[in-house]
């Protein structure tokens, strides 16, 4: 079993790195705060005697090359340590630190793996500062050219490649330099399913499709007091109609489709001026690709009608688009078996969130292990998983990895 | 008649002062750009041999003290030279520069007034940087203590009193130091009424009530991918419902009520996080006070229902509230008569915009003169009034002022 005290203490320590003036955890990809988090992770990897490698997109790898099996394709355990704005401490970090913990525990227990074991921390999984999300693993899996990713411009106008160089994490390894034999990711569920079902371990068998768009509506700025309602081309009102449409449609549908408008801005953004422009994001998800396409089409149709009715022009821009992913059945079964052997309840489930596993699944068999999120809360400082569940999940990861590295 | 070339050239010159990097006219109250505009106005006042005075709230006065009538209560002509963001060149400036022009023309024509004539430029009429709007004239009329106004914190975190001192326009005169005998304000209509009616001059007999509120909705931040629609407390969605409610209600009502949401922000404002907070402004107007109160009450009721239905909390904060104003009938008649004598068509009308005249009407008989705004466009760089209409309006002002200053 893993060293629970060491794991929990590292989660606690990493969670203190990157607090802003209001004590919020904000460790956005390639920021100064991210550098501090990366530095802590690298020092722990070195403490565990791992070889540390960084690739061109800034992904960090801690490699245990069992000497007899140096040339074999490795088992990779991974997740990310970048966070959203005002984040909880578990999202991503739990998976990376558990991977490190698993390697350290196996090693000190004298386990002899049949192939190297690697723990990876992928760059910019959250997609808050740079889009798309899961960028480091997407590049690693060959789904996005590294040059294109490095050229991404952030919400703050920065360029990812420059920021990585500035914080000292523009590595020299070519993304994909280690082709994994298998990949496992342990993560908090970030949703309410496990807690509601009273189940300790999720054996994640698939992950829903994700569609991100940015919508820009152009109307006509005019005076709020003198312009009759009938003569307005109000970009802000049109935006409100889209937000309501998406939410009402998703909420009234029997499908698991989810729709969210998380970002918005108006121009000129003055109390007595009708907005000339509204820009906002749409996050649409569904486990079924056909249904996700149907939702995108319904939105597109609605925008056409709305533009005509409100005398506005509407442009959409693709930010990210990932089809649903089915994970490797054999690894999912290993997760179930490991849980059972430890006396833990488990259930198969879908991931609502995007994860690095969905990208790495393009280049090797992959699966995920979930533990409960109390109240289903994530991307929020109140994100919480009880210690017993955190330790149980890490032990299931240990068992799955030792199985995969025994063959 | 006034000197059309001089007036039009000053409007043109003042409109070039305060252009930002994108060539937008942004001369927000008490900004560096406003300082440059004020300096130009003061130099023109001095050129016209007027005594210049500045009061504690930064209102600028150009005073022509006809020597025989120094102690009489003056005729005041006024408006403002601060602008909105990305403004047109006429709003406010046209009234101030016409006032200056009228005094200069009367003087050089040898007119001997029965009382002093003053042209005033009031501080922060637009209310974009500091609230409430019409602040300088409100303070001047005794409707807001000067200390309170000077302590206002702007949208950029600045304090008005400090900004006025910084730009050199924190004067020493007590607001209200000149009690006017009568007040007249010439302004572009900023709405479509005169152009649609094909009429050259508006004799403004009243001004609608204005209600500004800031609404803050608090929901719960959560993950956009993992949180089922039924478990959300989405502050952004709730805001969209309010925006739609206001617009749909106003648009479907037979009354002239107008409702606008001009400003908005979400927190944490990330593509994959359900907004925990939405803050936006509401601008509600109606010429009838009972109806305006009914609209405010309807909004308040809607917010109560919405908070319960969406599991959010909603707080409202008053930004500004002005009851409708009826202007002085005798001055309105002078406007009509002056237009008629010049062979100009005129009509009585309501002002949709707030104006300094509505504040000064608290301390003396007041009225306004409107000229057409092409397409009803204002608070927009495409704001436009043909030169002939600008000149006609200034001549009507000349006639009204000379009448008022003859008695
Ligand atoms: N796990 C996680 O929060 N990933 C961020 C990408 C997403 O929005 O699902
Ligand atoms: N005239 C004008 O635009 N005033 C600003 C105050 C308002 O919003 O009506």
From TrEMBL, chains A, B:
The residue ranges of the Peptidase M20 dimerisation domain are 208-307
InterPro entries listed in its UniProt record: Amidase_Cbmase, Bact_exopeptidase_dim_dom, Peptidase_M20, Peptidase_M20_dimer
Lyase as a keyword of this entry, yes or no, is no
A single Gene Ontology molecular function, please?
Answer: hydrolase activity
Keyword annotations of the record: Hydrolase
Entry-linked Pfam families = M20_dimer, Peptidase_M20
Report the superkingdom from the record: Bacteria
Q: Which residues form a coiled coil?
A: none
Q: Which family does it belong to?
A: Belongs to the peptidase M20 family.
* The protein, known as: Zn-dependent hydrolase
């Amino acid at each position: 079993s893993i060293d629970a005290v060491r794991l929990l203490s590292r989660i606690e320590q990493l969670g203190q790195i990157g607090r802003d003036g209001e004590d919020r955890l904000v460790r956005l990809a390639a920021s100064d705060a991210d550098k501090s988090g990366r530095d802590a992770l690298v020092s722990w990897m070195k403490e565990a005697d791992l070889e540390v490698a960084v690739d061109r997109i800034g992904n960090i790898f801690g490699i245990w090359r069992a000497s007899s099996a140096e040339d074999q394709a490795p088992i990779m355990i991974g997740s990310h340590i970048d966070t959203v704005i005002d984040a909880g401490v578990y999202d991503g970090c739990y998976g990376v630190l558990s991977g490190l913990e698993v390697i350290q525990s196996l090693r000190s227990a004298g386990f002899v793996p049949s192939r190297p074991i690697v723990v990876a921390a992928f760059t910019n999984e959250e997609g808050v500062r740079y889009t798309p999300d899961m960028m480091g693993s997407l590049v690693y899996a060959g789904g996005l050219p590294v040059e294109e990713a490095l050229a991404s411009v952030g919400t703050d106008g920065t360029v990812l490649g420059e920021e990585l160089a500035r914080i000292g994490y523009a590595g020299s390894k070519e993304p994909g330099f280690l082709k994994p034999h298998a990949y496992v990711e342990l993560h908090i569920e970030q949703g309410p399913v496990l807690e509601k079902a009273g189940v300790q371990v999720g054996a994640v068998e698939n992950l829903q499709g994700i569609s991100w768009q940015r919508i820009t509506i152009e109307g006509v700025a005019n005076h709020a007091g003198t312009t009759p309602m009938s003569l307005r081309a109000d970009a802000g009102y049109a935006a409100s109609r889209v937000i309501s449409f998406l939410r009402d449609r998703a909420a009234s549908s029997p499908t698991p489709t989810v729709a969210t408008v998380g970002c918005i801005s108006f121009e000129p953004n003055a109390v007595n001026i009708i907005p000339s422009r509204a820009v906002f994001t749409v996050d649409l998800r569904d486990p079924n690709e056909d249904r996700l396409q149907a939702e995108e089409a319904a939105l597109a149709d609605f925008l056409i009608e709305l533009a005509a009715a409100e005398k506005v022009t509407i442009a959409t821009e693709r930010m990210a688009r990932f089809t649903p992913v089915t994970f490797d059945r054999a690894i999912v079964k290993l997760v179930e078996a490991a849980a059972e052997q430890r006396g833990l309840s488990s259930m198969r489930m879908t991931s609502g969130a995007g994860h690095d596993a969905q990208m790495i699944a393009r280049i090797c068999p992959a699966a995920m292990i979930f533990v409960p999120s109390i109240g289903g809360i994530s991307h929020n400082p109140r994100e919480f998983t009880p210690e017993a569940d955190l330790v149980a999940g890490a032990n299931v990861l240990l068992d799955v990895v030792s199985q995969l590295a025994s063959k």
